[in-house]
Write a structure and sequence with these properties.
Layout: H1 4-18, H2 30-37, H3 41-53, E1 57-60, E2 64-67, H4 81-124
Length: 125
């Protein structure tokens, strides 16, 4: 017999596989899952941790949990635990790469502003 958190995780995996939840979709909130399964918050948290560990979900701080994108894991249907963990890692690495790219863009913008201010100062001085 499966534990409650395993039942929740299995049900969400099936929704993802069947297309009921698509890549990028928000996963149901903790409150919704607690009500739907009559589960404790701990059971829901364990289910979400399992989905993230297996590469089915990613977290976005302050926004919630979302279905991992297809490029996070090539074939969600045929994942085994070893492959799934790689998918979860890919999602985290890609999120870090996006954040780094945004930071580099901001730095370039700030550098251009500083250079423009220095040019104006040089003309005045």
């Amino acid at each position: 017999m499966l534990l409650t958190f395993e039942v929740i995780a299995d049900a969400l995996r099936e929704r993802i596989r069947s297309g009921g939840l698509k890549p990028g979709d928000a996963l149901p909130t903790q409150a919704v899952l607690m009500a739907e399964y009559g589960a404790s918050s701990l059971s829901v948290q364990k289910a979400m941790a399992l989905l993230k560990q297996d590469g089915y979900a990613i977290s976005r701080p302050g926004k919630g949990a979302f279905v991992a994108r297809p490029d996070d894991a090539d074939d969600l249907d045929g994942l085994d635990v070893g492959t799934a963990r790689v998918g979860g890692t890919v999602a985290r690495v890609e999120a870090l790469e996006r954040a780094l790219a945004e930071a580099v863009e901001r730095i370039a913008d700030l550098r251009a502003r500083v250079e423009a201010l220095e040019a104006v100062g040089a003309r005045k001085g």
